[in-house]
Amino acid sequence: MTAYAVNPEQLKDVVTAVLGERIKHIGVKLGELTVVVSPADYLAAATALRDAPGCKFEQMIDLCGIDYSDYKQGAWDGARYCVALHLLSVSLNQRVRLKVFASDDDLPALPSVTGIWGAANWFEREAFDLYGIVFEGHNDLRRLLTDYGFIGHPFRKDFPLSGHVEMRYDAESRRVIYQPVTIEPREITPRIIREDNYGGLS
Known about the structure:
Layout: H1 8-19, E1 23-29, E2 32-37, H2 42-51, E3 59-67, E4 81-89, E5 94-101, E6 109-111, H3 120-131, E7 134-136, E8 165-170, E9 175-180
Parallel strand pairs: 2-5, 6-7
Antiparallel strand pairs: 1-2, 3-4, 4-5, 8-9
């Protein structure tokens, strides 16, 4: 029986051999292996990670969007939007994080991996809804958590904290209506108790 890599450093060597020049960056940090590929190599790299004998990442357990615009207090100088996938090989008991950065900050778009892992369906819809990342080839890309008429993408760093509009049910018109936000920002200062022996403590 062939011994496969379970240790992150050994897995790094296996993944490097499988992906080769498709890798833009690979590294182990805090015991986890992260691989970064370009959008052009994304689907091929994902397929190789699923199918290669030393990888066999048959499960995609998570996919999420990331907005790097304020990363390290604005010190980040790369592409703004990233998608990170967390892959699991049940058969080989190993994990890897696959990252890809969208090349266009104004209209972030990446290929959909739903044809590789069906579980990506709702995860990609969530990343589209919250970050505005378009997944080309997704057969049902629509909002998942916000309402159909929602404007903007609430997990972007530049999205206003109070939003643009609010919705409520109007009893007179017997439907949901939208109106400008009426919430007034206020600062709440917590009450500080300075009594001696408070709560029986001396």
